Amino acid sequence: MTKSHWESWHDPYRDKDSYLSHRLETVKRRLKESIGQFEVPVKVLSLCAGQGHDVIQTLRENPSLNISKALLVELDPKNVSIGEGEIRLSGLENVSYLEGDAANMALYSDFVPVEILMLCGIFGNITLEDIRKTLAASSSFLTLGGTLIWTRHRRKPDVTPKIRNWCEEFGYQEVAFDAPDKDDFSVGTYQLEKAPLPFVSDGKLFQFITSN
Fold first, then answer.
1. Do 132 and 13 touch, CB atoms closer than 8 A?
2. Which of 55, 73, 145, 161 is 20 to 30 A from 43 via CA?
3. 160 has pLDDT over 90
4. Please, are residues 150 and 68 in contact by the beta-carbon 8 Å criterion?
5. Distances (CA, A) of 55 to 70, 77, 105
6. Cα–Cα dist 178/151, whole Å
């Protein structure tokens, strides 16, 4: 059976020394640390979750993490099927998929607020305007003190300085910015310090375009 583009995009994860595998390990480390900061059971929401490697592997490898529920939102049905298979194999009863367009705000009305919001693999596929729009709305998904984790490559023109400034503008404090010399990915981890915006269930956050 022919693979979809977004299923094939995950192939480099099979190589433990690939760009994506290195980024994955960084995201997993920051996710584990972030969950550990909370005294309450944590809800995790991952937009454009793909095959869910970051959330599924983190919870499988660290069964003592205090997770209430994790929701992975993904549009590609083959990626959803693969991810759901990994969830079953891992015995993670508190992790589930929602198949749909992650940009659709209406999908989240019954799940927010959450302690951790993951925007990984998104910012390299949308316009700068949509990155800013998504960050502006992101606090409405979170509890006060919640954690935002995002990724973006640093290829020229490197827009991560703008993204970091926008995070500060929208009420976040930078916990960590991982930008290894060996690879050109970056992982931003931020804590929400200002009161979250009210959640608005209509509208769309972004539109995927050719990678930029």
1. no
2. 161
3. yes
4. no
5. 8, 18, 21
6. 9
Nearest to 138 by CA among 71, 191, 177, 208: 191
Q: What is the pLDDT of residue 11?
A: 60
Give kind and range of the element (H or E) at residue 70: strand 67-74
* Residue 182: both structure tokens together: 């060996």
Q: Which structure tokens are listed for 34? A: 């972030």
3-state secondary structure of 18: coil
Contact 153, 199 (CB under 8 A): no
Q: Compare 59 and 5 and report the one with higher pLDDT.
A: 59
DSSP lists the bridge partners of residue 186 as: 152
pLDDT tier at 7, thresholds 50, 70, 90: very low
